[in-house]
Design a protein that fits this description.
131 residues, elongated, mainly alpha, 2 strands, homodimer
């Protein structure tokens, strides 16, 4: 099945090992054997993951036969971010509504307290002074 | 294969029809038949996509037997955004570097122009007045 570029990116990101590889590459470029070490994975397994990330445009690999460093391509993630952008409004709106609601609650509490203290004050005044 | 929650989300988003369904639901909740109409898809096909989105936590569905409205869950996308956040620095850094480089170029151009105009000015002064 041939996917559109954005779907290919999402599919490539749908794997914790590939996301861990990206996180490692965010620190700087490196090659397959260095990438394989912390994952306790075979070189072919890591190579396969790198191929998926590369076809998705999320990484780029050097062409040197011996040392083919993999490098992260942040622009590809920016595309994912661009897609998310249209939904950001939704959770921000929701947060704003929650915020407004909390402020209403707080305002209500304050108003209640004010009324209470005013009443207490008034009743203290009405109370005849003890001696 | 059972995926971690973030992988499940990415996998669910790796399909243009499911992303289109999300875009429709961002406008407001609706049910399967209304969702199916613009896609020229069978109801079972749409239901299947909704199931994938629901297991990923990206939508929620009402429990009413007749009208089971689907609703987008923006919080789930916020989680994807949170993951992206750590990489934002990378493309922003790259943009900042490009910006700094362009400014250096511009500054260089301006300096050159200044020197040129100063030289032109100086040579005009040195040039003996005609006539």
């Amino acid at each position: 099945m041939s996917l559109d570029p954005l779907s290919t990116k999402f599919a490539a990101l749908a794997d914790p090992t590939r996301r861990a590889i990206l996180a490692r590459l965010a620190l700087g470029e490196t090659n397959v054997s260095e990438l394989a070490a912390p994952f306790a994975m075979s070189l072919p397994a890591v190579s396969k993951h790198l191929k998926v990330l590369e076809s998705a445009g999320l990484i780029r690999r050097g062409r040197e036969a011996q040392w083919r460093p993999a490098r992260i391509e942040p622009e590809a993630l920016k595309e994912v971010d661009g897609w998310l952008e249209q939904y950001r409004r939704l959770w921000e709106d929701r947060f704003d509504r929650l915020d407004a609601y909390l402020k209403t609650l707080q305002a209500g509490e304050k108003a209640k307290e004010k009324t209470k203290s005013r009443k207490a004050h008034a009743s203290a005044k009405r109370r005849p002074a003890k001696r």
